[in-house]
From TrEMBL:
Domain Cupin type-2: 42-99
Name this protein carries in UniProt: Cupin domain protein
CDD domains, per database record: cupin_HNL-like
Organism of derivation: Chryseobacterium joostei
One Pfam match: Cupin_2
Length: 133
């Protein structure tokens, strides 16, 4: 676990609370603009933190840097994605991702073709859904 001082030194800022259950921190590398059609950022999820269910209008690629990423597509079992592995989320797939209850997880999120939109946020992942891993 990182200290607050270490987190600040690494350049993380609080992520919008309305998109997560638990505490997540964000470091943005690339914001989309008229020339760059992508978003690249890093998210640090504290233990047990997860996104709400959501979709993307284009691919989202998640590169797991540290910890275990719990990832679930609607109607499918939860997957455990290890550090060094990735998942390519296809457009329109309802899903969530987050840290295991045992430790932090850091992933780099890459959003492609951002002119189509970034994220369509939905309902929170219930504790019952989360605990099915």
């Amino acid at each position: 676990m990182y200290t607050e001082k270490e987190i600040t030194a690494m350049g993380y800022n609080p992520a919008p609370e309305s998109y997560f259950t638990g505490r997540a921190l964000l470091k943005t590398y690339v914001n989309p603009d008229e020339r760059t059609n992508a978003y690249i950022g890093e998210v640090l999820f504290e233990a047990g933190t997860r996104t709400k269910w959501h979709t993307h209008e284009s691919n989202q690629i998640l590169l797991v840097r540290e910890g275990i990423c719990l990832y679930q597509e609607e109607g499918k079992p939860i997957q455990k994605i290890k550090a060094g592995d990735f998942v390519n989320v296809m457009p329109g797939i309802k899903h969530w991702h987050g840290a295991s209850p045992d430790g932090i997880m850091i992933h780099t999120a890459i959003g492609l073709n951002t002119e189509k939109g970034l994220v369509n946020w939905m309902e929170p992942v219930s504790d019952e859904e989360y605990n099915q891993y």
